[in-house]
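Q: Study each token:
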Amino acid sequence: MTAADEQNFFTDAELIADPYPYYETLRGQCPVHREPHEDVVMVTGYEEAISVFNDTATFSSCTSVTGPFPGFPVPLDEYAESDISDLIAEHRHVLPMSDQLPTLDPPVHTDHRGLLMRLITPKRLKENEEFMWRLADRQIDSFIERGSCEWISEFSSPFAMLVIADLLGVPEEDHPRFEEALLHRQSGGGVGSTSNRPMAHSPLEYLYQEFTAYIEDRRANPREDVLTGLATATFPDGSTPDALDAVRVAANLFAAGQETTVRLLGSAVQLIAEDAELQQQLRDDRSLISNFIEESLRTESPIKGDFRLSTVPTNVGGVDLPAGTTLMLLVAAANRDPRKFDDPARFDVNRANARQHISFGRGIHTCPGAPLARAEARVCIERLLDRTSDIRISDERHGPAGDRQYSYVPTFILRGLTQLHIEFTPAEPT
């Protein structure tokens, strides 16, 4: 057993703060490597991950969020040489989050994603970005005179949540209720927690309740608003979805888009505050911000990985895999594959192929909210730079440079800071 095999990626807390040496060791053994603790095949290679993402006939997304926990409802060992597609169809409904877009396979996924894309139109995204600029200033106003803030709770979390609320047309007078319910709720282990606490079958009850009420109201009493568009949107074939299908699409976008964007905003501002030279480059040349965001996503992917379940015997990267194999596509590792990215651990704001990262996935499950997340990050960075003359990490809260102490979300799915205390000098009024 190698040093990496002695560590359990899914439960070892020491891998939370810095998982990258683990990824490198795994790839050094083989880009497609079966770990011994949970019997998961870890895919750390870029091309290998792409091949799995793109092959939806061979790899089901039914366990994409939960992987080996709690496991498939029936043993799959005896079906190693079979096609288990019918078994997946039979038992899919009892799997956690089986009603969510990331766990769906074609043709159901095709219909539900088509419904979602009818909501996230270029026109709607442009209107939403106008709201972002106002919201960014409003959030910064709440702490700018203090010269410091805890970036995650005072900016990133409320900003990301309210942007999604606006995109989906939640009336502004209802925003405080969403903030209270979704930002001030008591946190638990959640999906991917290293504590392996039990998972709820559907953790989105609040959003289901709220959007069910909105959709039922708008179907009965149409208005000239976005929620009416959501309530009356049709599948690509023209059929009208059940109200619950529309609710699921809205709730999934709300929950998934918020969580990943918060992590992106945290890592991006951490990079800016830690590196004075990089910060000055961005201040001097705002055209660098777009590629800065891509390189942030590459080096610090908000999602560590995504699971797939092989439906038939197959081969990935020269490794034979039986049907029923759980694979974890470690996108955070693939984004640092030296076969794809030169000197991959180095942050390079001018990296030519930074946008080829797979932090938003690839293929039919590419994150539909990727344009939204990119716009949110760009707006936040622009306004933070506009409103300050310098940004620094708080030595008092995180320790001195060279000996920083950061806390990361304790899950094997997400990568992101739980807190980021920054200090800054407000810019002189112009």
